[in-house]
């Protein structure tokens, strides 16, 4: 009888303790996620709204356009959201594009005349200090005021310059802007 009791203590007791620890940990993680998920979603929506106002400062408020989303390259470059200004000042298009470090998300503000008012990279996995040079305001500001790009390839477009050493990231940003302008055209502008 003593052998069975010592075998239980030696082999099964630690297993039961580990299972109990795993169960409690899983419960606590699920509870924490349930509490924080709405807060994270609210903060993400607030940050996106602030970015829209930054990109199209003449807007009073934004509404999801519910438009058919433009796809430049299936799975590589495509619009994910279009928000139009309630006062008709323009729209902000969110685009995902394939960059050096993976998918890059950019928001592009376009006024009612079809001119770019600003570009902002909101998510990326590009190399800091190298690929991120293409996300800097000094690079993105060259798109302001443009209403047409001559090519979806940055190296074939004489209206803008790419960042030397970050040509893949520069190309990704350029394709995002090109896609946003195509989305604007596909919608017939702001109505």
Write a concise keyword list for the protein shown above.
23% strand, elongated, 6-stranded antiparallel β-sheet, single chain, 3 helices, 191 residues
Fold and architecture overview:
This protein has 191 residues and is of the alpha+beta class. The chain has a domain at 62-186. It is 41% helix and 23% strand. Strands 1, 2, 3, 4, 5 and 6 form a 6-stranded antiparallel sheet that branches. A hairpin with a 4-residue loop joins β3 and β4. The longest helix has 54 residues, at 2-55. It is elongated, with a radius of gyration of 24 Å.
Give me the secondary-structure topology.
Elements: H1 2-55, E1 62-64, E2 71-73, E3 77-85, E4 90-99, E5 102-111, E6 116-123, H2 137-140, H3 167-186
Antiparallel strand pairs: 1-3, 2-3, 3-4, 4-5, 5-6
List low-pLDDT spans. none
What's the helix-strand series?
A: HEEEEEEHH
Give a short account of the largest sheet: 6 strands, antiparallel
Distance between the termini: 85 Å
Beta-strand content estimate: 15-25%
Relative helix content: 40-55%
Output the radius of gyration.
24 Å
Number of DSSP strands? 6
* Number of distinct helices: 3
* Average of per-residue pLDDT values: 92
The best one-word shape is elongated
Sheet/helix structural class: alpha+beta
């Amino acid at each position: 009888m003593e052998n069975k009791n010592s075998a239980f203590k030696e082999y099964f007791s630690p297993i039961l303790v580990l299972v109990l620890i795993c169960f409690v940990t899983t419960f606590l993680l699920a509870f924490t996620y349930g509490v924080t998920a709405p807060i994270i979603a609210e903060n993400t929506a607030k940050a996106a709204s602030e970015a829209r106002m930054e990109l199209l400062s003449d807007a009073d408020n934004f509404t999801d356009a519910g438009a058919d989303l433009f796809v430049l390259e299936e799975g590589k470059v495509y619009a994910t959201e279009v928000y139009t200004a309630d006062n008709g000042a323009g729209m902000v298009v969110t685009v995902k594009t394939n960059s050096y470090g993976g998918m890059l998300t950019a928001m592009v503000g376009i006024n009612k005349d079809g001119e770019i008012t600003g570009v902002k990279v909101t998510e990326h996995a590009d190399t800091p200090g190298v690929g991120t040079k293409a996300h800097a305001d000094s690079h993105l500001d060259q798109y302001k005021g443009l209403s047409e790009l001559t090519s979806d390839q940055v190296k074939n477009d004489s209206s803008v310059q790419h960042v030397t050493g970050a040509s893949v990231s520069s190309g990704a940003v350029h394709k995002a802007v090109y896609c946003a302008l195509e989305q604007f055209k596909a919608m017939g502008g702001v109505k």
